[in-house]
Write a structure and sequence with these properties.
globular, single chain, 265 residues, alpha/beta, 7 helices, 11 strands
Length: 265
């Protein structure tokens, strides 16, 4: 899939406008001060005042801006030009000095030369990347010695199922690209969109080993039997802001998180 970047960039450019208008992203409330960060990542991040943070695959920048509001100095990057344009405008509306750059993760070193206290990425990011060794190399490259990588993502177990969660459709392992066409979007399932996309499943072992091989020490790894987002075709809000996939209930992980620290030597 040599052209996967072009396919996915087109897909994400098309998502920006309907996402900005969706309840899922609550842009009006966000401008008024509501954070986009959830309890999982807030607990991992802690006090970020004065910290320099690189936010990979930031979409139109809500988490980046939320981190700026918490006192961090934030640089967000995203593949989509339209998403970054929207992020810059949103930052201006929110009165933050968040910086945004257009870049594929793998190409970021060509346009950015700084090191950061924290590299952060979350929810629906690594599935767009074919090679986690290259991803982990980028993460490590941009961390200061002693810096932390903070990562929250949907669990690979979830990605094995069909959209209705009735049967196993995909391999748990990264065997081949998943090339499909989808209608709508996770933020608005009735949106007038028909998009091609290319994704990859990444097992937990691939995630962990890619980081461990890049001079990063694992400090925590946790799994959660709920998701903070109602982004699947079927969602059951069993507690405010916490969702199960009804067919799976609390019997399996929906999300995982990790913190890894760059070794000083």
């Amino acid at each position: 899939m040599d052209n996967y970047l072009d396919i996915n960039r087109k897909s994400w450019n098309a998502k920006v406008e309907p996402h900005l208008k969706s309840d899922f992203y609550f842009v009006d409330e966000f401008i008024k001060g509501r954070t986009s960060l959830n309890s999982i990542e807030l607990n991992l991040l802690g006090d970020v005042r004065g910290k320099e943070i690189l936010h990979l695959q930031c979409h139109f920048g809500q988490d980046s801006i939320s981190l700026s509001r918490m006192g961090a100095k934030v640089t967000g990057i995203d593949l989509s030009e339209k998403a970054v344009e929207a992020a810059i405008e949103l930052s201006q509306q929110c009165g933050t000095d968040t910086q945004f750059l257009v870049s594929d993760v793998y190409e970021l070193r060509k346009i950015l030369e700084r090191e950061f206290d924290i590299v952060y990425t979350s929810y629906g990011t690594i599935g767009w990347l074919p090679d986690l060794d290259k991803w982990a190399e980028v993460v490590s490259h941009f961390l200061k010695p002693g810096g932390k990588f903070i990562f929250v993502e949907f669990h690979p177990f979830i990605w094995m199922y069909d959209d209705d969660f009735t049967h196993l459709k995909y391999s748990y392992f990264n065997e081949m690209p998943i090339v499909e066409t989808a209608e709508g979007t996770y933020a608005n399932q009735s949106a007038d969109l028909v998009q091609d996309y290319v994704m990859w499943n990444h097992p937990t072992s691939e995630v962990l080993n890619s980081l461990l091989n890049q001079n990063l020490a694992l400090k925590s790894f946790d799994e959660y039997n709920w998701s903070p987002y109602a982004c699947f075709l079927h969602n059951d809000e069993f507690e405010k802001g916490k969702y199960h996939i009804p067919q799976l209930g609390s019997k399996c992980p929906h999300v995982f998180s990790l913190v890894a620290e760059k070794n000083a030597d």
